[in-house]
Amino acid sequence: xxxxxxxxxxxxxxxxxxxxxxxxxxxxxxxxxxxxxxxxxxxxxxxxxxxxxxxxxxxxxxx
Length: 63
Prior knowledge:
Layout: E1 19-24, E2 27-32, H1 36-41
């Protein structure tokens, strides 16, 4: 069996959580559905886990 894919944030495998694929800076990565809000709202928490995450801006919400 091939190696399973893991969430870039929490490291949960695809056998434990649905994973969403993404590409950033020419690299492929996977993030689970529970960690997706981190990517959207608090990308600074992904520094060291996603290349150049420090350059990402949180989503701008209009209230």
